[in-house]
Amino acid sequence: MVRSTRIDPSRLAAYDVLKAVRLDDAYANLALPQVLAEHGLTGRDAAFTTELVSGTIRWQGTYDAIIDACLTKPRLEAKVRDALRLGVHQLLAMRVPDHAAISTSVDLVRARVGVGPTGLTNAVLRKVSTDDLPTWVGRVAPDEASDPVGHASIARSHPRWVVEALGEALGVPAELPVLLAADNAAPRVMLVARPGLCTVQELVEAGGVRGTLSPYAVELAGGDPSAVPAVAQGRAGVQDEGSQLVATALADADLDGRDERWLDVCSGPGGKAALLAALAAQRGATVLANERQHHRARLVARGVRAVPGGVSGVVTGDGTRPPWRPGTFDRVLVDAPCSGLGALRRRPESRWRRTPRDVEELVPLQRDLLSHAIGATRPGGVVVYATCSPVLAETTGVVDAVLAARGDATLEATRQLWPHRDGTDAMFIATIRRT
Ligand SMILES: C[S@@+](CC[C@H](N)C(=O)[O-])C[C@H]1O[C@@H](n2cnc3c(N)ncnc32)[C@H](O)[C@@H]1O
């Protein structure tokens, strides 16, 4: 008799997202909504899949070490590993009964890979289910005293080089495990009330709680942000409080003389441009939003639609070959392309995708963009250089090198935000004055 098994669609969907991340370089947060729709998943089922995908990708490093410890042969097909990772997350981090986690994983492998590896899947997951996560970590992670980086890498699921780079930037070894743990937690949903268009009070009345760092921030306790009318109308948006502070650092910097022309050099997809435009409109200034990639410039144009009075234009251009004349602008933002290692909470796969080489390749571009931004600023004007990475080569390394090379600008302030201290992405913000 042939046994027909109905495969659980939530787990199939999670598997399909992992496959898209592995094979197509997809971003999990972008692939998820599409796959959920394809499988007709909503409500609790969609929430289950979302947690399964995000948690599995975040904890992949730890889970792989555990899976490897349970294998009798070292080689494992990537698609079987994906199914095992999903099974391990259910066993060690979700409240799924062992028998359900194991049997659904075996069904998944049978449906998506074939009968061959079902026995192995069953055996590995049974072994994993015999202990809890702390016990497994104690068994598979290097000794903390003799190899603290190696231990943190396995225990907190970050590549070794990322642990080293974050540790160097943080500079407080005792805090590093707390930072790495914060990277593994889902970020809070933070809204921005765009001044002049929406008040913080309106968002509080819609069920939010005032943020503590940005005067425009409101944390949404739950629910779909796009269901908040002000968000749907573009008067408010979803924006990390750290990103809001980047925009306010530029807008609030002291300035003598003219304050009319603002520039956002790297504006796509446009979250900071929209806040800057709202702030500019309140004082009769306008923002020129520039972005190298045309499709991202179109997103900026859509994002600033609600604040037409604060925008002088949205253009597609290369900030290192600027179409504007030197000394044109009063306030300039360079929100530079970066490794994104400060936003690991919201981009679970990026820690596994990024390499030290990416940082090496980004630094010359970051320097070039900052140097041209200083050139675009009038004497006495202000430049904010920001990254959603705390990696020193991308932050103070870039700023110090550019200021030393140019000799016509001074550093006024730097601020490094941290998820575990500030509840924000690890944004770096440098405020620079053109002399
Ligand atoms: C960190 S993102 C900016 C995020 C944006 N400020 C926001 O708040 O939505 C960096 C952007 O810089 C753009 N970029 C990369 N190289 C550039 C260049 N040479 N000139 C202008 N933009 C560039 C990327 O396409 C990317 O959209």
UniProtKB/TrEMBL annotation:
Residue ranges constituting the SAM-dependent MTase RsmB/NOP-type domain according to the UniProt record: 164-435
InterPro entries per UniProt: MeTrfase_RsmB-F_NOP2_cat (IPR049560), MeTrfase_RsmB-F_NOP2_dom (IPR001678), NusB-like_sf (IPR035926), NusB_RsmB_TIM44 (IPR006027), RCMT (IPR023267), RsmB/NOL1/NOP2-like_CS (IPR018314), SAM-dependent_MTases_sf (IPR029063)
Domain of life per record: Bacteria
Binding site for S-adenosyl-L-methionine: C266, S267, G268, P269, G270, G271, K272, E291, D318, D335
UniProt keyword list: Methyltransferase, RNA-binding, S-adenosyl-L-methionine, Transferase
GO molecular function, one term: RNA methyltransferase activity
Pfam families in UniProt: Methyltr_RsmB-F, NusB
One GO BP: RNA methylation
Active site (UniProt): C388
Family to which the UniProt record says this protein belongs: Belongs to the class I-like SAM-binding methyltransferase superfamily. RsmB/NOP family.
UniProt protein name: rRNA cytosine-C5-methyltransferase
Organism: Nocardioides currus
